[in-house]
Structure formats: structure tokens, C-alpha cells
């Protein structure tokens, strides 16, 4: 079931900073750090699971399995990317039901045409706004718990301009979305305008992508201009890729891992603890004494 803590945090106007998680190691690390929410990044999950670009190549089955495992392995509420809902209205209904049953606390659905593309890459096209509004209405009706949040994203800014993106955000909010997400504003001034027009009625989500199309503003500033959530979907996998490249380069150059700086490695003991080995060892110790003797 969806975690009510996320809706409660929004109602209490507590600003939410959500790191992007893309596999169980990143999820376990983030889960232990006291964040109010985690964000299941489609880009990162597709990259880590399939080794493919975030270009509509992953299926519902791919994503609900991976996102559900992350949700079930963490105590922190998870909002998960669900692309376009993986099809038409019936697909959206089944996607919402599947994500909710999987233990996810919120689902993000966007108004791109199929196949979709990453929101900070070129060539994105959007479906008619009224069609997307129907998807949101279906999503709201399909959920079993009101604590399961519907995030409606529009990608209209890049191809159709800010005014149309704001119109769509308003339309999706009126259709029942709990959180409105205008993707890829290109300046702080545009973000201020989004906050001015939409922020008084709906919690707004800012997508903070290092090297992306949108300026990354401090949390306090985002809250001042009307935003409620800031997601950092790429931070984890960008950092992980850089760390892996440095470690593997060291191995290639030396032929062994000796001399690798301590800060460059998580440590085998620490990763065992993170993955839950102490509980396994305690289980085995406790039951070993009751195991019947052989022979």
C-alpha cells in the first residue's frame, strides 16, 4: 500500500528533496539517509537494467518489476516514473493498479507520444492535452488508496512553448492530478511563472538534472517560487558511473586494486551490512543450534 507520509508531507507544506534511485544499491544507500521520498528514475532504471537509452524501449513489465522491488526493499516512500502509462487508457488503468500493488507510493505519467524520450533530450512530441487529461482521470479512478499520488507531467514546453505547458499543467491538475510537473523550463523566470500560475493550487515538481535544460535552484528558492518537490533523478547514476570509471581505470593501469584511495571504495564490510548480511548471519546462528545432528 502507498505510504501516507508522502501526502501528509505535502499537506503540511514540507519541501521534499528526492534523490533518484535506479537499482537496489542506490536505493539502500538513499533509504538510510532520512529523505522524505525517493524517486525511481526511468532513465536510470532502463540504463542499469537494460543498458539502453530512455527512449520508450522498456515495457510495463520491465518497469513495474524493478520499481516494485525498489519500493519493497525500502522504508522511504517511492515515486516511480511510468512514462506514458505504457499505452492508452486501459494501459494506464492497469499500470496504476500494478504500481500501487507493488508498494509504490506515487506514479509519474507524461503526455508524450509513444515512443517517449527523456525529458531533457530533443525531439519530444506530445499528445493532445485533452487525451492526457483523460489519462489522469483514469489514473485517479484506478487507484485504490487516496494516498497513492498521481504526478502529471507535461513535456510541451520544449516544442509548444511555456504558455501551452502551463495550460496543460492546469488542465491536468483539474483532471485530478495530485502533483503537477512542467518538464524542462529553461530559466528561473520561467519557473517563477509556472509557480505563480500553478503553485497556489497544486504542488509543483522541479526536475533537477545536472547538465539538463533547467537551472538547478536551491531548495529554499524553489519553495519561495511555489514548488513543493525537487527530484534529482540523474545524480546517483552520474556519480556511480564516474566512480566506476575511476576505479576501473586504476585497475587497468596497475593490474590490481592496491593503492586505490580509501574514499574511492565503499568497503566490503560496509556493503555486506548495507545488503543485510548481518541479519542472515544471525538467522543462521540462531537456527544452527536447533539443526538435527547428522548421522
From TrEMBL:
This protein's UniProt keywords: Membrane, Transmembrane, Transmembrane helix
Presence of the UniProt keyword Membrane in the record: yes
Domain of life: Bacteria
InterPro entries: ICL/PEPM, Pyrv/PenolPyrv_kinase-like_dom, Pyrv_kinase-like_dom_sf
GO terms of molecular function: oxo-acid-lyase activity
Entry's transmembrane regions: 225-244
Protein's UniProt name: Carboxyvinyl-carboxyphosphonate phosphorylmutase
Source lineage: Bacteria, Pseudomonadati, Pseudomonadota, Alphaproteobacteria, Acetobacterales
Gene field: bcpA
